[in-house]
Design brief:
- The chain is mostly helical.
- 80% of the residues lie in helices and 0% in strands.
- It has 5 helices and no strands.
- The chain starts with a helix and ends with a helix.
Length: 137
């Protein structure tokens, strides 16, 4: 691995661990009815997730950052990437609904139900990301 690949590798590792910790703190804040704290954490997490995805996609623009994925891992990486989009898009929709739409909007009325699905998927995504780093490490 070259220096840039190593930087992305360790940045991804730090992001995965930090985001799982922040997701737990956000979940706890929601459970304790600390809505303002929960909202700030979810805005931060969703923004950082989009920045991570953008940085991941930018890797393909620069060949020196790109490492080939072994053929035997392609199915896993496709599954991981597809599942990763579900909580990212879901969290984005929930945040948009919370910030812009009325309290009676569908996403706001079922916010907790969506969270019961999205949070485990988000954890799966980050644990899968750690697994990816291990596979490619």
């Amino acid at each position: 691995m070259n220096g840039l690949q190593l930087t992305f590798h360790y940045g991804s590792l730090i992001w995965a661990v930090l985001s799982m910790a922040l997701l737990l703190v956000a979940w706890q804040a929601a459970h304790q009815k600390q809505i303002a704290r929960h909202k700030k954490l979810m805005i931060l997490l969703t923004t950082m997730a989009w920045l991570f995805i953008l940085s991941y996609l930018l890797r393909y623009r620069f060949p020196e950052l790109n490492r080939p994925i072994p053929r035997e891992y392609i199915l896993w990486f496709a599954l991981h990437g597809t599942v990763a989009l579900l909580p990212l898009v879901g969290a984005s929709c929930l945040l948009f609904a919370r910030l812009r739409l009325s309290a009676t909007h569908h996403f706001n009325r079922y916010h907790r139900r969506y969270a019961l699905v999205l949070v485990p998927l988000w954890f799966f995504t980050h644990i899968g990301g750690l697994f990816n780093l291990w596979l490619l490490g």
